[in-house]
Design goal:
By secondary structure, this protein is of the alpha+beta class. About 15% of the residues lie in helices and about 25% in strands. It contains 6 helices and 28 strands.
C-alpha cells in the first residue's frame, strides 16, 4: 500500500512539472483563462507572409485585377481580398508583436505596347497603404498578438493599367532575401456594362403621344405597314394592344395610321409592328473580338502580341425588351429620333456612369464625308450612353452571316471607343479612310474608316489606348 502511494505521488509530480514547463518554455504557448478550464493555442507564423498572392485570384485570366469601380449592387470582384471599389485588402502574417516595414512599389507595365521597362510609370502614382489609421506609401506597424497586420491599398480612381506591389520586411532597408516579401502584381482595371437590345424588323415607333380616344397613330415611318394589317402597339412597361389599320396617310415627316380607339394611351417612342412578324435585328457578342480590344489577362499580356486597355466588360443579364424598328430617312430629325428612341427603352439610364445601351437596329442611312457619302454602321451618343449598331447596313456590305457578325462586333468596339472618351477629332486618323496601323502593326486602328472590317482584328493604336486608359472613370 505504501509503495503504491509513492508511485502515485511521483506521477502527480511529473504531471505538474510538465505543466509548468509547457507554460514557461513550450511552443506553441498555452493561455488558460482564470474563469474557465479551456486552453487557447496560439500557433505563431515563423515565416513572413503577405497576401494577396496569385493563388488568391481563382482564375489565372483575372489574376491581379483590382476594379477601380463597379455599379451599385455589383460586388463581383476577382479576389476575396477586394471588398470595396478601388481598394484591395493587404494581410501580413508573422511572429506576434514584431515591427514590420511596408512600402508600395510601381513594377513594370507588362503590356506588349509599353516601351518603358523600368517601372515607376504609373500615371496616377503609387497609391496609398492604410494600416491602423496611418496612411502613406511607406509605413511600419507591429503584428498583433496573433501575429497579423491588416490594412488596405488604395489604387487610382482613373488610370486603368496602373499597377502596384506592396513589399513587407522585418528590415527597414528591404533586403532582397527572405526578410522581404511582396504581394502579387495588382493592376487597376475599369469596368463597363453593356445593356444589349435587339429590335424588330417590322413596323416603326410613335413619333407623337397617342392619347386615349384618338383614332390615329402618328408613326415615324410606315415602313412595311399597310391598310388591313393587324398590328400590335407596345411600350416599355409591357403594355400592348392589338388592332387593325383602317387606312394610312403618309408624308415625308410622319405617317398617320387610322385605327379604332385603343382604350388606353401610349407614350411617344412606343412600338408598332405587324402582329405576325416577329423577325429581329440582332448579333452575337464575340468575346474574343471584344477582349482583343479591351483586354483579357490581368497583366495586360494577351495572345499573339495583343494588349488591351484594361477595361473589364460585363454583358448585363435580364429580359431586356426588343425595341421598335428604326428606319433612317433623309428628311426629319433622324439622329434625334434615333437616340430618343433608345433613351426611352434604356432600362439602366444613369448620368456619368459606365453603363451603355447597345441596340442592334436596321437601317442607319448614310453620312456625308469629304469624298461623298458613306454607309453608316454605327452611331454613339456619349452624353446619354447610347450606341446603335446598324445590322441591316452591315448586312449590305458583309454577305455571309459569319462575316456580318464579326463586323458587327468590330463596329461595337469602334463605338465603345467613343463611349470610353475617344472623340471624333482627337487624332488625325479617327473616322478617316487611311491605313493607320494599330499598336500591333498588323492591321489598322479600329477607329479608322479603312475598309478592312470583317477580319476579327479589333485593336486600337497607341494614341487611342492611352486616351482610354487615361479617361476619367465615370462610375
Amino acid at each position: 500500500m505504501k509503495q503504491n502511494t509513492h508511485i502515485i505521488l511521483i506521477f502527480l509530480f511529473l504531471v505538474f512539472s510538465a505543466s509548468l514547463y509547457s507554460q514557461e518554455e513550450g511552443s506553441p504557448t498555452q493561455r488558460t483563462s482564470s474563469n474557465s478550464n479551456e486552453v487557447t493555442l496560439n500557433f505563431a507564423c515563423t515565416t513572413l507572409e503577405i497576401l494577396p498572392q496569385d493563388s488568391d485570384f481563382p482564375s489565372s485570366i483575372h489574376r491581379g485585377k483590382v476594379l477601380i469601380s463597379t455599379r451599385s449592387g455589383d460586388y463581383s470582384y476577382y479576389t476575396n481580398y477586394q471588398t470595396w471599389d478601388g481598394q484591395v485588402n493587404i494581410k501580413l502574417k508573422y511572429q506576434p508583436n514584431t515591427e514590420i516595414y511596408f512600402k508600395i512599389i510601381d513594377p513594370d507595365d507588362e503590356s506588349p505596347y509599353e516601351t518603358n521597362t523600368q517601372g515607376n510609370d504609373n500615371i496616377g502614382g503609387l497609391g496609398t497603404l492604410t494600416i491602423n489609421g496611418i496612411t502613406g506609401t511607406s509605413i511600419s506597424a507591429n503584428t498583433n498578438n496573433n501575429g497579423e497586420i491588416n490594412g488596405y491599398l488604395t489604387i487610382t480612381n482613373q488610370y486603368s493599367g496602373d499597377n502596384y506591389k506592396v513589399l513587407a520586411s522585418t528590415d527597414s532597408t528591404f533586403p532582397n532575401d527572405s526578410r522581404t516579401v511582396e504581394t502579387t502584381n495588382l493592376i487597376a482595371w475599369k469596368r463597363m456594362y453593356i445593356e444589349p437590345h435587339n429590335s424588330y424588323q417590322s413596323g416603326s415607333f410613335l413619333s407623337f403621344n397617342y392619347n386615349n380616344g384618338d383614332t390615329y397613330l402618328r408613326v415615324w415611318d410606315r415602313g412595311d405597314l399597310n391598310p388591313g394589317d393587324q398590328i400590335i402597339i407596345f411600350d416599355k412597361y409591357g403594355n400592348q394592344t392589338i388592332t387593325t389599320i383602317n387606312s394610312i396617310n403618309s408624308s415625308t415627316s410622319t405617317s398617320f395610321l387610322y385605327i379604332n380607339n385603343l382604350g388606353r394611351s401610349y407614350p411617344k417612342y412606343s412600338g408598332v409592328r405587324k402582329l405576325s412578324d416577329t423577325r429581329i435585328y440582332s448579333f452575337q457578342y464575340d468575346h474574343g473580338i471584344l477582349q482583343n480590344a479591351f483586354g483579357k489577362n490581368g497583366n495586360g499580356v494577351d495572345s499573339n502580341g495583343n494588349g488591351g486597355v484594361f477595361v473589364d466588360y460585363q454583358l448585363l443579364s435580364g429580359n431586356f425588351k426588343t425595341i421598335p424598328n428604326f428606319y433612317w430617312k433623309v428628311s426629319g430629325l433622324t439622329d434625334d429620333h434615333n437616340f430618343n428612341l433608345l433613351k426611352y427603352w434604356f432600362e439602366n439610364q444613369c448620368t456619368g456612369c459606365n453603363i451603355f445601351m447597345i441596340a442592334a437596329l436596321g437601317n442607319g442611312g448614310h453620312i456625308q464625308t469629304p469624298t461623298g457619302f458613306s454607309i453608316e454602321y454605327g452611331k454613339t451618343d456619349r452624353n446619354n450612353n447610347l450606341t446603335s449598331i446598324y445590322i441591316y447596313n452591315i448586312g449590305q456590305s458583309f454577305f455571309t452571316p459569319q462575316l456580318e457578325n464579326i463586323a458587327a462586333n468590330e463596329y461595337c468596339v469602334h463605338e465603345l471607343g467613343h463611349q470610353l472618351d475617344i472623340g471624333h477629332n482627337d487624332f488625325p486618323h479617327i473616322h478617316q479612310n487611311v491605313n493607320h496601323p494599330d499598336h500591333t502593326g498588323i492591321e489598322t486602328c479600329i477607329m479608322t474608316y479603312y475598309p478592312d472590317k470583317g477580319t476579327g482584328h479589333s485593336e486600337y493604336d497607341i494614341q487611342c489606348i492611352n486616351k482610354i486608359r487615361r479617361a476619367k472613370d465615370r462610375l
